[in-house]
Predict the structure.
Amino acid sequence: MSSAKNEADGGHLALGSPQGSLALGLAMMVLFFHLIDRQIMAILAEPIKAELGFSDTQIGLLTGLGFSLLYSTLGIPLARLADRFDRVKILSAATAVWSGMTMVTGLTSSFAAMLLARMGVAAGEAGGIPPLHSLLADLFAEESRARAFSIMQLGGPLGVLVAFLGGGYLVAAFDWRMVFYAAGVLGLLLAPVLWWLMPEPRRKQKAERDARLPFWQSTRTLAASPAFVHLVLGIAFAGMGLYATIIWAPSFLIRSFELPIEHVGLLLGTAFGVLGAVAVLLAGFVADRARKSDAGAHASAPAIMMIIAVPLSVAGFLASTITSAMALLVLPIMMMSAWQAPALAAIQNVALPDMRALAAALAMFVLNLIGLGLGPLLVGISSDLLADRYGAESLRYALLVVPLAFTLAAIFWLLAARALRRAAPPQDQSMEFAR
């Protein structure tokens, strides 16, 4: 094993240290390929529909519930393994599986075959995020955790940038199948790099590990925390708006404004990728600074972002020109990216150390069932139901599901912020588990 993968000695890494930078760089790359392989369907929806004759509801199933059911279900047992065994090996194997199944997606020619392939991607990705969150929570101290998560989360908008921009040009130059092949190959190259170079912090001694709470008792402990419950529900509804927008925004611009697919990729890739990356970085740093004086800042900051996004997203989806639509949607798109770092860091802050991967998996379970599972699907069903009345413009009105979801997210995060403040000792506002 490479010397770069030395175990941490129980202390925390500094954000700018060589090993800290290595860990954050690799974490960002994991999320980068995770988002490419998951969201590549968004830019390819219209070409796939044209060739294979899928409906909006079927696209919603492929990108939503059909993907999220397996992803959510497998995430919890894989997270339980990650709380007990080598997280880096689990993460590396998961990366190889989801990348390989992304390539398989390019070989399919029917709805059933593509659904099975996307379920294979989901099975691999289920083993990725919980171990990654647990690793970062152990590697970096609580006072810098939102910043660490914001750096990791940069992989998200950059992945969407490459998926939209690169996917748009690749499908225009070749076909939609080539996009799946290219994305899968690149992800496969990352898996062995993770295996050898990602640091794995030393955890508790065997006697302490053996004393860990059983699964159901750990789950009940987390569910007894009002802060945890409200954080997770906020993440779920914010995810519903996020995934519905990512999946359907390309089709919205193509149908309502008749833009070429490569132009759609450029516009949305820039908005989600470049501006989203800026928002992610700022959110982590601002939330960590605000938390010094407000224990609820990691939840109240995302709530404010959603409140800003609601009226602008309504106006953007109803706009009559491409210029006004993009101008109005830019800030909501930035907010969709920015909420993730502080909210996900807050999940790790309220979880006991031996429950961190499980806490992440439970959050991902609810996020993916409600957010990823229902968001794209509800928009797809609504679009089909509205098609007789609005024709090609039905998707525009179906996307009003997004601001409704953002409103619910803001409500739950404001409740989470209140619970976090109540759980923090007044003398130093440091976090402890909210029992």
Remarks:
- The chain has a mean pLDDT of 84.
